[in-house]
Amino acid sequence: MKNIIFIAPPAAGKGTQSSLIEKEYHMPHISTGDILREVSQEDSEVGSYILEVLSQGGLVKDDIMYQLLEERLKKEDCRNGYVLDGFPRNVEQAMKYDEMLKKLHQELGYVIVLDIDEKTLEKRVTGRRICDACGAVYNINTEKEQPKEESICDVCGGRLKQRNDDNIESFRNRYQIYLEKMQPLLDYYKKKGILYVIDGRGSVEEIFQKIKKVLMKG
Ligand code: AMP
Question: What pLDDT does residue 131 have?
């Protein structure tokens, strides 16, 4: 399977879809945010630097980013394709990623974008509830994604909570930043002819079917 770069606005369901792709195609889901969160726990200079950047919501320096990503992409499990989430975040990183791939004898593959309008995302953000015990995700604004019992997880009986940044103000801010930063990146990949824009409205399963169709075209 070809590699995938997965791009989507906040709350579009990128995490859920990445897990489904991972299971169906046996490709690792590589989230640069997850890698950084892990390194930030290390007792080292780089660890404390990353911890500080993450807490401020800024971007980690490119040289550290590239080094961590290259190390991850060199691992055996990436040989047959991977889903990259959180990288690249701008055109400069995209250009560096091209160089990295050349060095690793890998190809860009697909760039998949979930396209959803702001109003739909707002509804998702305000309705999203996450089980604090097992991490299962629900949405109280969508009939198909509601828990059977209010505030209780169907899977494990744990309590459902709302994420701190799942409020309208924070969402609007994150969404604006996404639009500004992502458009040049999408243009970059459109020119290369590998950009696939998928309508991200609908149920988790419906969106996954659309992604599978793109991957089948390959
Ligand atoms: P995410 O989980 O993708 O939202 O990323 C969490 C945080 O990790 C971001 O707010 C950034 O501080 C950092 N981060 C993730 N990916 C990158 C990247 N490609 N370049 C720089 N910083 C990043």
Answer: 95
- Write phi, then psi, for 184 (nearest 5 degrees): -60, -35
- 84 CA to middle of ligand 1, Å? 12
The Cα 29–Cα 77 span in angstroms is 10
Q: Which protein residue has the closest C-alpha to ligand 1 atom 19? A: 87
Q: How many CB atoms lie within 10 A of CB 28?
A: 17
The dihedrals phi and psi of 102, each to the nearest 5 degrees, come to -60, -50
- The verdict on the CB of residue 59 being under 6 Å from ligand 1 is yes
Tell me the CA–centroid distance for residue 30 and ligand 1, in Å: 12
Instruction: Quote the pTM value.
Output: 0.85
Positive or negative: CA dihedral 97, 98, 102, 106 = positive
Element (H, E) at 23: helix 14-25
Which value, in Å, is the radius of gyration of the alpha carbons in the chain?
A: 18
Span 154-187, pLDDT tens digits: 999 999 999 877 888 888 888 888 888 899 999 9
Which residue, among 206, 193, 188, 179, has the nearest Cα to 121 in the 3D structure? Answer: 179
* C-alpha to C-alpha distances, 41 to 46, 73, 87, 137, 215, nearest whole angstrom: 10, 21, 21, 25, 36
Tell me phi and psi for residue 111, to 5 degrees: -115, 115
Distance from the alpha carbon of residue 36 to the mean position of ligand 1, in angstroms:
7
